Amino acid sequence: MLKYRTMIVLSIFSGMRQGDLTALTWSDIDLENFTINIDNSLQHLPGRETFTKVLKLKQ
């Protein structure tokens, strides 16, 4: 339950989309500076696989 609650709170207060939230890794979170780097997003295409894509701003 805690992981879902955390995702909902992050979504509400940060404006992140579902793909951005699910692609987060521990290396994206900086607890010392209280920042989260959003570099990737998960995308699922019906009939195909789920894959990680680099966000356009990072390319």
Structure report:
It contains 2 helices and 4 strands. The chain is of the alpha+beta class and 59 residues long. The chain has one domain. The strands form 2 sheets. A two-stranded antiparallel sheet has the order 1-2. The longest helix is centred in the first third of the chain and has 13 residues, at 2-14. InterPro entries: DNA_brk_join_enz, Integrase-like_cat_sf. This is Phage integrase family protein. Keywords: DNA recombination.
- Using the alpha-carbon principal axes, give the shape: globular
Radius of gyration: 12 Å
Number of strands: 4
Counting helices, strands and paired strands, the structural category is alpha+beta
Largest sheet: 2 strands, antiparallel
Distance between the termini: 34 Å
Runs with pLDDT <50, length 5+?
none
Taken in chain order, the helices and strands follow as HHEEEE
Provide the β-strand percentage band.
15-25%
**Helix amount, in percent?**
25-40%
Task: Please indicate the count of domains.
Answer: 1
Itemize the secondary structure elements and their pairings:
Blueprint: H1 2-14, H2 18-22, E1 29-30, E2 35-36, E3 40-44, E4 50-54
Antiparallel strand pairs: 1-2, 3-4
Protein name: Phage integrase family protein
Organism: Clostridium frigoriphilum
Keywords: DNA recombination
Provide a compact summary of the structure:
31% of the residues lie in helices and 24% in strands. The chain has 59 residues and is of the alpha+beta class.
Question: What descriptive keywords fit this protein?
Answer:
single chain; 59 residues; alpha+beta; two-stranded antiparallel sheet; 2 helices; 4 strands; 31% helix; globular
